[in-house]
From TrEMBL:
Domain of life: Bacteria
Function per UniProt: Catalyzes the activation of phenylacetic acid (PA) to phenylacetyl-CoA (PA-CoA).
Keywords: Ligase, Nucleotide-binding
GO process annotations (BP): phenylacetate catabolic process
EC number: 6.2.1.30
Ligase keyword on record: yes
Family recorded in the similarity comment: Belongs to the phenylacetyl-CoA ligase family.
Pathway: Aromatic compound metabolism; phenylacetate degradation
Protein name in UniProt: Phenylacetate-coenzyme A ligase
Catalytic reaction annotation: 2-phenylacetate + ATP + CoA = phenylacetyl-CoA + AMP + diphosphate
Length: 451
């Protein structure tokens, strides 16, 4: 099933013509209505008429998250505030939040791309749709809510948290689809098991998961526990929110980007040069239809690649790989780049462990230290008569995990096994990196580390 078949299966030459026309309109809009962009363009000697189509995209300057903070709150809006019907933003945990705005048409377009995403993931009109994404300034909850309503679903706007209530509503309302962060929906499934319930016995058939990087191993875990198809969705507030791209039910291989709304590039994060299709680098997006808050070549910090080949589902829009991680979450361990998701893949391949882990960055003397903290399973703890770090089986498991991490990553990572139910559970985005170096006055503030 396709939500907008004439758009989703558009031939590539026609799509390029559409993108070029929309890019010209966007460039005109930001040049004449956003002083920040006008200054950047003038510094480069660029006029709107110099951008004839997508082939000229590389001439345009990048936008960074710091630009949003420096123009806080409304300095990057391209319309008067009276025309903005909604504002979203980041949590602002690292200073002032990043603020994005939407006109009435922006909200309609957002609902459209989210409805398209839900259909791509296997949803259909009439579904009961359990939305466990957080509502509020975070874009996840309301983005998926409006998309599901646009599709014609019955939406359960439960948001995150209160896991026992989530379980009751899933059992009583019998949703066909669920949306949320993968770590939190896994928490729901594990809580059901702890209550003596079978998560596979629910009415759920598909799950739309995003807002944090997650692995194929996490997908397998979610699908096995819940008896569903687990689909990855991608989006970020600065571009629009959820709905930028999503995997299809048929292939589950690469996320289809809504290219009639978003122009995508992959660049070398060090040089800023565009990379060929298939090469891994930093995702960059240019919005093509946003009125209130258009962005030009926005550097996402997310690491992925683009698929050059068509998908068997019949959609012609380009696909991006699943996000490997964020550049600012990357750890440099003795010269090797490591993402937490790579550790997750190893953890989930070990049956004696759970999917609950954290990567702790600390300092000993002048050296940074990286430790993977991960819980053992209830079954493993019961099988050895209760968890203690001194038990020979625990030491043996820790040694085996260190060896697997060494083989997978090419570097040695310390391992600290934890008793079941001792690491914090996510009710939103999982916090995977704990940087304790901030406790030391001389510690760097960035989460990158060289060991």
């Amino acid at each position: 099933m396709l939500f907008q078949p004439e758009i989703e299966t558009m031939d590539r030459p026609a799509l390029k013509r559409l993108q070029s026309a929309l890019l010209r309109e966007t460039v005109e809009r930001v040049y004449h209505r956003v002083p920040f962009y006008r200054r950047l363009f003038d510094e480069r000697g660029i006029k709107p008429e110099d951008i004839r189509g997508v082939e000229d995209l590389h001439k345009l300057p990048f936008t960074k998250k710091s630009d949003l903070r420096e123009n806080y709150p409304f300095g990057l809006f391209a319309v008067d505030l009276k025309d903005v019907v909604r504002i979203h933003g980041s949590s602002g945990t690292k200073g002032k939040p990043t603020v994005v705005g939407y006109t009435k048409k922006d909200i309609q377009n957002w609902a459209e791309v989210c409805a398209r995403a839900i259909v791509t993931a296997g949803g259909r009109p009439g579904d009961v749709f359990h939305n466990a994404y957080g509502y509020g300034l975070f874009t996840g909850g309301l983005g998926m809510h409006y998309g599901a309503e646009r599709l014609g679903c019955t939406v359960v706007p439960v948001s995150g948290g209160n896991t026992p209530r989530q379980i009751t509503l899933i059992e009583d309302f019998k949703p066909r689809g669920i949306a949320g962060t993968p770590s939190y929906v896994l928490n729901i499934a594990e809580t059901m098991e702890a209550m003596g319930k079978n998560p596979r016995a629910t009415s759920l058939e598909y799950g739309i998961f995003g807002a944090e990087p997650w692995t194929e191993e996490m997908r397998q875990t979610l699908e096995e526990k819940l008896g569903i198809k687990a689909l990855d969705i991608y989006g970020l507030s600065e571009v629009i929110g959820p709905g930028v791209a999503i995997e299809c039910w048929e292939a589950q291989e690469g996320l289809h980007i809504a290219e009639d709304h978003f122009l995508v590039e992959v660049i070398d994060p060090e040089t800023g040069k565009p990379l060929p299709l298939g090469d891994t680098g930093e995702l960059v997006f240019t919005s093509l239809t946003k009125e209130a808050f258009p962005v030009i070549r926005y550097r996402t910090g997310d690491v992925a690649f683009l698929y050059p080949e068509p998908c068997r589902c019949g959609r012609t829009h380009i696909r991006m790989s699943r996000v490997k991680g964020r550049i600012d979450d990357m750890l440099i361990i003795r010269g090797v780049n490591v993402f937490p998701s790579e550790m997750e893949a190893v953890v989930l391949s070990v049956p004696e462990l759970t999917a609950h882990y954290q990567v702790v960055v600390d300092r000993q003397g002048t050296m940074d230290q990286v430790t993977l903290e991960v819980e053992v399973s209830e079954a493993f703890a019961a099988g050895i008569g209760g968890f203690t770090t001194e038990h020979p089986s625990v030491a043996q498991l820790a040694g085996r995990l260190r060896g697997m991490l060494k083989n997978a990553l090419g570097v040695t990572v310390d391992v600290a096994l934890k008793a079941p139910q001792t690491l914090p559970r996510s009710e939103g985005k999982a916090k995977r990196i704990i940087d304790r170096r901030q406790l030391y006055q001389t510690a760097p503030s960035a989460p990158k580390t060289t060991v």
